[in-house]
Amino acid sequence: MMLSKEEFLNGKKSVTLIGMSGVGKTYLSQALAKKGWECFSCDYEIGVTYLKEEIQQTLGIEGQVTVENLSYLSQFVGQLGNPELGGLPMDEFLRRQKIYYEAECASILDACKTVQNTEEDILIDSTGSLCEIEKPGVVEALGKSSLFVYLKASPEEELTVIQRAQDDPKPLFFPPALLPQWIELYMQSNRHRMPEDIVPNDFSRWVFPRLLTSRLPKYQFLADQYGITIPTSKLQNLSHPDEFTEAVAAYLS
Prior knowledge:
By secondary structure, the protein is an alpha/beta fold. Helix content is 54%, strand content 9%. It is globular.
């Protein structure tokens, strides 16, 4: 949604935060929720609406995903590799990747409906993998419903995010077009005969910088198509929704 500064300031505000995990999307969303904005968390919607039964059945738990605790969703996505080290066989790993993808697409369309049905200012907290969605019409619908604000990390912040991923590897969603070649390259480099030989955390550490590098231009493309780019430094330490509104308006013409 491309808006002028005047249109943004004088109308109902609908904003979708995009960018890599760790740049502050959820933190900013929760801060604004406390100040009166309606907030829609795609991760939360994926966990409690679309993958709730899968999570409970697959993990054998009754736990509930919350905005503050998305660990069950992360556990469900899982990591590829040796089952004895907590990894998933290839077939199961790809099955969960596909299920997660479909759930994310559905959550995005739900976000669009929520925007249409509320009179309040609303902030959409998207996932880090929003830029990987290729199903026709899904991202476009969200782009027509809200202003995309790309939280662009500085080079120093990118290094911090990478280091965090090295220190504490997390399950990730991968672009289907790139995942097979990354797995093959990793296996060749480490002389693995089959995916089940992979040490899950080692693969996650190796692949994360490549995933991040592949996503950055995709975020920028979405921002250019449907919104604006703001350095993360401009949205830190906000104490009032008006400060967020003013920060966004400063990048609109």
